[in-house]
Amino acid sequence: MLEIKNLSYSYGRRGRGRRVLSGLHLHFPPGFNVLLGPNGAGKTTLMKAIFGLLPARGEILLWGKNMATTSIEERTALMSYLPQMDIMTSNLTVLEITLLGRLPELGYRVKEEDLKLALEALHTLGIPELASRPFSQLSGGQQKLVLIAQTLVREPQLILLDEPVNSLDMQKQLELCQILSRIVADGRVSVLAILHDINLAARFARHMAILDGQGRLYSAGSPREVITEKMLREVYGVRAQVTEAPDGVPMAVAQASIHSQKTAP
């Protein structure tokens, strides 16, 4: 589905500053994909480069189509991007916020097709009862569901989500990932999400990619293949035990920071 070839990016004037991504080669299949890595590994930079917000060097192919040669309109029809967000204020209703996802198709009057797609997206996410509520009165978890509905209403092939569970409690994190998994299973769209919770990622991801602290690919594959004690030590700098949940999903139990061990008396 999504293929990244020899991708590099450096911040600073003319790309001569700090290098964040370095010669990345990645492949994400259709389904629920997760991008993992420590802080500063370049995960958000990669997400922005995929969506075309940063002029990275290399190739980004979606279903074999080179994103560098596509127009902004065509790219946004193929992909939707939801960056990190905190609670937002807006006087618009949930339905109006969702309809904004149909831009630039929206005209001076909302067409019946646009309204139908917006309501279907809210139903898909299980929040149709919020349609008339002011967006600013929703909880953080509800707001994120509405913004995901806004991305769905565009009918993209791929949704890019940057830390979608950030600031949510454990229950809401699970519920959001369950909803995303159901949407993916229905075959409507594929997902590439940045997550920090390794155990949450292991439970829901079909495919995972781990970036190291230098913006390079450390490993990629199924959760069983990439979540190892060696990876946690070398990438995250923690001593951890990897076990299995009763249903066979790998589970990482962090025990200590390697750095704190080195400095301990």
Tell me about this structure.
This protein is an alpha/beta fold. The protein has helices spanning 43-51, 72-78, 94-99, 112-124, 140-152, 170-185, 198-204, 223-226, 229-236, 258-263, and strands at residues 2-10, 19-28, 32-36, 57-62, 65-66, 79-82, 158-162, 190-194, 207-211, 217-221, 238-244, 250-257. A 6-stranded mixed beta sheet has the order 6-7-8-3-9-10, sandwiched between helices. It has a 4-stranded antiparallel beta sheet with strand order 2-1-4-5, covered by helices on one side. The longest helix has 16 residues, at 170-185. The chain is globular, with a radius of gyration of 19 Å. It starts with a strand and ends with a helix. The mean pLDDT is 89.
